[in-house]
Amino acid sequence: MTILVAGAGPSGAHLACLLACKGIKVTLVDKLKSSKDNNFSSAALPLKSLRDHSVPLQSISSYWNKWQIYDPYGSNYQWTSSVPLGVVLDFSILRESLWERAKKLGVEVLIGWEVMTVISRNTHAQVVLNSSFGQAINRNFQLVVDATGQTRALLKKHCKNTINTNQKLLTGTGIEFLIKVDNKTSQKWKNCLTFFIGNKWIPHGYGWVFPMKDNNLKVGICQLPPTNRKNVITNSYAIKRLIRNLELDKFNILDKHGGAIRSTIDRSDMLTSGRIIGVGDAISTANLLGGEGIRHAMKSAEVLASFIIKKYNFECKAYTNNKSIDIKSYRKDLSKAFDWRWKLANRIAKRTWWGLSGADSDNRLFLLIKHLNKKMSAEEISALLFDYRFERYGLRILPYLFRWK
């Protein structure tokens, strides 16, 4: 019997490779026709993630050793390390590389195919797959993994409610342009992750410029407004304004892509439905603070792979149509992997982006950035933003979090 992984992004493709390495038969499907389709991901990672998650090195587009933040009033602050701190990936090459790795490991990779229906039987899942060119096939799998990202395509279709509690999904939307610039302009942004924070830049969100190879820049914005409020300005208007203010509007735009991030603060999502089990963004592993998805998705794939290999009985485990997989250990292991720091980062994100709509919030951010500039090194900024080491910031985070300042 074979496991079906629906969604060949970082979580799904990584999971397929991990299972195949253990001799498990896997079919990996994705409705995208090409790795270049829907190429939305800022894809900035710390160096440690390359090693931890076996990220294909050919997907690295640039290295960075500097942080730069523009505050609400237009001043910029920089933190520089003498050594590289991380990378910016080419997301399409990352996907393509993971697909090729999966094929070499014996995974059946079906690009341009979509899971249409899943019926959980006592001993298997009955699945209908449709191709982009009109072909339909019926296949049986022992387990189906929903790795379809924030759409939660399979879990949402087969669960009346994908959230265990009354907690709502928090939703952010973004847009990113890939811009070809000249060598002089490229040097300005080289080796640096640059963020624009404050109401004057992006209400309820932030903007960024990340360097890529061949004098290309990723320029993007993301907005995460309160659930009862729409974006103050459209993403299209916000990114065009940012590009114009940075004097990048004279250069050629190579690509435009957009996407969404949807996550609960404490990952209260349903993990299973019948013989369907979720992974990655489909179970809220994306973190809202920096809109990070890739490394968290790959980490969740590692947790699920371990669960499947160690806990799941492939030969004789049987379920009724209405009984889900026993996933207590999976949820427990996820809680260990995404600990209190990860949850606190989500809470800070909600407080920050929801409240970023006026002069008071701009002033709080100004004071926060000013303090970081005085007290922290580039390495400590990385630990704060990537490892969520808020204890390094100490008790000064509390007045900001609870609006005492």
Please characterize this protein's 3D structure.
The protein is an alpha/beta fold and 405 residues long. It has 2 domains: 3-41 and 92-165 and 268-339, 3-Layer(bba) Sandwich (FAD/NAD(P)-binding domain); 47-89 and 168-263 and 343-401, D-Amino Acid Oxidase, subunit A, domain 2 (D-Amino Acid Oxidase, Chain A, domain 2). The protein contains 12 helices and 19 strands. The protein has helices at residues 10-21, 47-52, 91-104, 153-158, 183-189, 235-245, 294-311, 328-337, 340-355, 359-375, 378-386, 397-401, and strands at residues 3-6, 26-30, 44-46, 60-64, 66-70, 76-80, 86-89, 108-111, 113-120, 125-131, 136-141, 143-146, 170-180, 192-197, 205-211, 216-223, 252-263, 272-273, 276-278. The strands form 4 sheets. It has a 7-stranded mixed β-sheet, sandwiched between helices. β1 (3-6), α1 and β2 form a beta-alpha-beta unit. α1 (10-21) runs parallel beside α3 and α1 (10-21) packs parallel to α7 (294-311). The longest helix is centred in the C-terminal third of the chain and has 18 residues, at 294-311. The chain is globular.
Task: Provide a short characterization of the protein structure.
The chain is α/β, with parallel strands linked by helices. The chain has helices at residues 10-21, 47-52, 91-104, 153-158, 183-189, 235-245, 294-311, 328-337, 340-355, 359-375, 378-386, 397-401; strands at 3-6, 26-30, 44-46, 60-64, 66-70, 76-80, 86-89, 108-111, 113-120, 125-131, 136-141, 143-146, 170-180, 192-197, 205-211, 216-223, 252-263, 272-273, 276-278.
